[in-house]
Amino acid sequence: MRSSDCVVEAADGRTLRGTAWEPPHVRGAVVVASATGVPRRIYAPLAAHLAEAGLAVLTFDYRGIGDSRDGPLRGEPARMEDWGRLDLEGALGWMRRQHPGVPLLVLGHSAGGQLIGLAPSARHLAGALTVGAQLGWAGYWPWPARGLMLACWYLLIPVLSRLVGYLPMKSLGQGENLPRGVALQWAEWGRRRHYLFDALGPEVRAAYAALAFPLRATHIGDDGYAPRAGVAALAGFYGGPREVLSVTPAEAGTRSIGHFGWVRPRFRDTVWTPIRDWLLARVPAVQQLPVPENRVSAG
User: Fold this and answer.
1) Is the N end or the C end of the chain the one with fewer CB atoms within 10 Å?
2) Which CATH number do you get for residue 12?
3) Which H/E stretch holds residue 129?
4) What average pLDDT is seen over the chain?
5) How many whole angstroms separate alpha carbon 252 and alpha carbon 258?
6) Average pLDDT over residues 91-115
7) What is the CA radius of gyration of the chain?
8) Is 224 within a domain?
9) What angle do CA 116, 296, 67 make, to 5 degrees?
10) Is 117 helix (H, G, I), strand (E, B) or coil?
């Protein structure tokens, strides 16, 4: 198994930075869609774990994040939907060109799981597994956390983003700083009951409903950012077979996992391996079927 940095072209031609893990014998291909403000390097140990089992893996930085940031953040015009429609779409196309005819899957963390259906190539997926991916409407949180979410969507994120010119996530201890347009659209979605599905309209609802691949939505039991109700609500917009699986800290043999903690190597056996096994289970079932012509040639 080897890894190397690569250049990924988004659907609009913008250059993104990625890292590819290539096993000697590729059984399937996985694109990792990152959480909001999380650089791809955080997923490197997980990607290596998947590659050891024969899965080619691509991690990448969205525009304005990590190594895909071009120039001052105040001049970055990105919106959150661009991460799905353009960046994830480009990553899927890159992986399909590298491994034509191989079953393609997505592992989406938080926002990465929300955005899958915005990428037109998602219709070609053999499956998707999400972790901590939810609808952001505050009503899914119990009090007092609901009040904190309301404050974020209506006050903290809009005010700080407009005042500073970007959302200073680092100062808040929440990952990398976000482009202004990403943060403002994120907050706009959060103020709506059905999140991006209300904000972007019926065409987006229909696109997600038309996706036929199996989905496993993983809920982390002590995840304060993604309550089970929100995880289940997001899964309900995907059209294929779907399940919501909760993983508690006790089941993982620890006191805490959290929204970001599951990517730590100490969860290799308890969290990562079940993820790997579910992804691998999608591979033989697809390989037994003839590969549609447009699956290989598109993108």
Assistant:
1) N
2) 3.40.50.1820
3) strand 127-131
4) 94
5) 12
6) 97
7) 18
8) yes
9) 45
10) helix
Does 119 reside within a domain? yes
Give the pLDDT of residue 286: 43
pLDDT at residue 48, as a whole number:
98
Residue 75 in tokens = 């001049």
The answer to whether position 100 is within a domain reads yes
Predicted TM-score (pTM) of this structure: 0.94
| Phi-psi label, residue 46: left if phi above 0, alpha if psi -120 to 50, beta otherwise | alpha
Distance CA 49, CA 111 (A): 22
Contact between 247 and 91 under an 8 Å Cβ cutoff? The reply is no
pLDDT above 80 (res 46): yes
Helix (H) or strand (E) holding 107: strand 104-109
Give, as one character, the DSSP assignment of residue 71: S
105 in a structural domain = yes
Range of the domain at 14: 2-135+201-297
How many structural domains is the chain composed of?
1
Q: For the chain, where are the alpha helices, taking DSSP H only?
A: 44-51, 80-82, 89-98, 111-114, 145-151, 157-164, 180-190, 196-200, 202-209, 228-235, 258-261, 273-287, 293-297
